[in-house]
Automatic annotation (TrEMBL):
Keyword DNA repair: no
Signal peptide: none
TM stretches of this protein: none
The protein, known as: HEAT repeat domain-containing protein
Species for this entry: Floridaenema fluviatile BLCC-F154
SUPFAM superfamilies for the chain: ARM repeat (SSF48371)
Superkingdom field: Bacteria
InterPro entries documented for this protein: ARM-like, ARM-type_fold, PBS_lyase_HEAT
Amino acid sequence: MTTTYATEPINSAESAIAALTGDDNQTRYYAAWWLGKHKVQSACPFLCAALRDERYRTEQGGYPLRRQAARALGQLKNPEVLPDLVIALDCEDLNLREAVVQAIAAIGDKQAIPALINLLRSNSEQPFEAIIEALGTLEAWSVRDLVEPFLQDKSERVQCAAARYLYLLTQEPQYLEKLIHNLNHDNMYLRWAAAFDLGAIGHLTAAEAIISAKVADSLKLLNLRRILEALLADEAENGTSGEGKSFLLGAIDRLLLPENREVSVVRGEAIASLIDKLYYNHPAISAIAVESLVQIGNETVEPLIKAFLKCKDHGIQGFIIQVLARIGDIRALDLLIEVVGIEVANHCQGNVRRMAARGLGKIGRTTNDISAIDRCIEKLNWALSNVEDWALRYAAIVSLEEIATPETQAILTEALAQQGDRIVKLRCQTALENWQSAKIKIKI
């Protein structure tokens, strides 16, 4: 999204609500995003009013502020706003209708099911993918006969939504297989959609397919988490325990700092040339450059740090941090600590922070410099205690386990009692259990 600057900075619920009711459309849009991100429940009436906004309308007839208000209300998950969302479904803006349907699904109130069924029966253009997914989320199983024809829809994404709904209802494998098949689709967006559909299904077989799929690691992390959450919920309900937890935790651990093992290493290239190749807009070339720089090792550290400081492209910065984290040279300590502490607003930067956190784990494990170990532990403890990104907190736990000192053991013991996120809490517990079962010697 485009960042705009209001006369008064948006840094509190009060300032965001004031900006939402102001005159600058871009600032109002940002305010709606801010209120949703920070889950400000007192903003519900103002966001509902924004659902009826007529001032911010594009030349094509769309309502950007209304859409963002709907997304924010979905993040707030307050059932009291449901009547306003249902009314907003009547708007001619198709993208707004989709955002409203997704918000209704996020809230999870079944009172909206009749309104969604009316849209599904409509002969006019509708966001059918979102509608079918919402009906599955709300467990509206009585409309199977309405959903089944969408398996033959002209849109493959709508077909996938129907397959997802029907698998959740029937558990029949042919619907799961259709989604897994689309993970290898030539169309990148269909691969993404299939990953999200499989994450929503929460099946362990789906996890194995997601791990090997040609989608971004951030998407894999998000959807493996969703599958793990479903597995934990099933265990809590049925009192069972399986090996799926260990499999999923191991997969998440590896995704936090990926290794491109299938890429042949290009030898004989100068370090400067390899760094230049990181700028190529081609994943295979960038992956080869990353592997080659890792293989060369410590002599790449200083040039990489200089390249990072000059570069403004988050994707390139991510490659550089990946190399530095995997090498684990103490000269990169200051940069990795700085990167972990950067406040971010997009998933690319978030991925960079997670890899930096894993780099701190490697430095803390391999160095004998007590001061450096203390700095690694301090920053990882900060990340575990202060950041919103679950995957960054998860990465901090993996790195603290790797460093293995009495201090990290105490930090994880305390975190186990304080963390509210089930996945993060489970990883804390696993780290402590790993130390005990393997009898790993804690560094003194």
